[in-house]
């Protein structure tokens, strides 16, 4: 039972490590658009519907394919149809600001909430926002010294993780060996060798925003 629990926790650690490496790659290499339509007096400003429309228009003009299909409207109180959409990968710190953006639809207002992803917060236009506590942030990166939050707006197949020489992730367990003091304890861990990379620079845009 102890080994099974360790395997579960290491599995989470493995995938989070992959996510963080991909996050840092996108922050360092993706082209960006600053939010400018907000009213907080900073550069970039807080996110607004105008900024969302700007980045969606750029992805459309670059022929980026949407990732998720539309969710058709239904005769249910307080719901709204959802457009086919690109992913917007962002920090949980933006949750409050997203709620105030014009046209924001929380996932509990989807006609079919079961079609929402677990990390999904909601939808604005053709962007569906996936939030994470390890979302990308540039400390003191604005003109006024505020934290800048990177929102990676991506189309289908915009980036990928390339395994080096077919070296996929491995979970390693070494049992204790009772033949000497150096091998009395077991060890468990994982290792992997991969490189995250952008596959098409036109299909991923970093929308940079501060908080309201």
Walkthrough of the structure:
The structure is a single chain. Helices cover 22% and strands 27% of the residues. With 212 residues, the chain is of the alpha+beta class. It has one domain (2-164, 196-209). Strands 1, 2, 3, 4, 5, 6, 7 and 12 form an 8-stranded mixed beta sheet that branches. The protein has a two-stranded antiparallel ribbon with strand order 8-11. Strands 9-10 form a two-stranded antiparallel sheet. A hairpin with a 2-residue loop joins strand 4 (120-124) and strand 5 (127-132).
Contiguous helical run count: 3
Shape: globular
* Rg over alpha carbons: 21 Å
Biggest pleated sheet:
8 strands, mixed
Number of domains: 1
Indicate the proportion of strand residues. 25-35%
Strand-pairing-aware structural class: alpha+beta
The SSE order reads HEHEHEEEEEEEEEE
| Fraction of helical residues | 10-25%
Extract low-pLDDT stretches.
none
Number of DSSP strands? Answer: 12
Distance between the termini: 47 Å
Overall pLDDT level: 93
Lay out the secondary structure.
Blueprint: H1 2-29, E1 31-34, H2 49-61, E2 86-91, H3 95-99, E3 105-106, E4 120-124, E5 127-132, E6 137-138, E7 148-154, E8 159-163, E9 170-174, E10 187-191, E11 194-198, E12 204-209
Parallel strand pairs: 1-12, 2-5
Antiparallel strand pairs: 2-7, 3-4, 4-5, 6-7, 7-12, 8-11, 9-10
